[in-house]
Each structure stands twice: as C-alpha cells, then as structure tokens.
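hey m, so remember when u said the tokens were messed up on ur end? i reran from scratch. heres the input so u can diff it against urs
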Amino acid sequence: MPFIYEPTSLEKHAENYLTSLKIFHPYQINIENICTLENLDYGLGKTSCYLVVNDYRFISINEQKNSKDQQFEFLHELSHNHFDHNLYTAQCIDLEKQARLFSLYLAIPLHMFRFINFNSQNIIKETSDLFNIPEDYTLERLQMIYERKISNSSIQNTIFFNHI
C-alpha cells in the first residue's frame, strides 16, 4: 500500500549531501568510501572523535566497538565534519543533538527508502544489516519514518513511497 512521507529539512539536507557525493546505494555508505570522497583521514583508537588542525581533518573510531557501532559512530563524527563543528563547539548539547540526528538521516537516508522492505516481519534486523548500523539506531530511524507518515490530505512537499 502506498504511503506519503514528509521529510524534514535536515533529512533532505542529508539526502542532498549523500547524492552530491554520488552515494545512491546502502553499500556505498561506508567509512572508506566516504573518507575517500571527502578527503578525510580516519583511524581506529580508544575513542571516537573528530579532529581538525588547520585544513587537516581526522576521524577516530573506537576500536573496541563492533563494525555496526563503528559505522554509526563514524557517521556521527562525519556529521560534525559536515557542519564544521570543532573541538571547541563540539561540547555544545545542541550541536551534539544536530550531529546525532543528521547521523541517523545519513545512516538510513531518504533516497534509499526504496531498498527497505517495509512489509517484512524482520524489518529491523534486515534494515540494520542492509545499512550496517546497530539495531537500536535502526529502530529509532524506522520509528521516525513511521511518525512522519502523513495523511493524503496534506500533499504539498511530500514524497510518495510504495509500501508501509
């Protein structure tokens, strides 16, 4: 059954960012690919963080985490990079919230909804595996999607999807 979805402006921004990098499939949302496209360095360390020194940008990912947690933490740190948050401003709660929300939108972006089987009984695990992010973040993102579904009466600035 078709549904109508109204994305947020930040969600559209995440979609535009990824499409500008020519990222159109879930497998393209990975650390190595994005670092190459963004000319970022990354490495594994004791914690996840984003560092800037002059024009040099580096993302450290916690080596103790599993690959799905590392993927999501990378997207979070990438969000700080995208919004030019730096070490001095990164402690601000509002900037952390912005980076977290943007990382959820990057993790399961608007233009990749077509890869999700919204009718599946195992939608959380399947989507988690498809986008390589932890199930708790997958559930959070899917809940956001379901909450933004709108009725047919409000059609302006909406996107139509088949399924849900």
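this time it looks ok to me. Confidence is low (pLDDT under 50) at residues 151-164. if urs says something different then somethings off w ur setup not the seq
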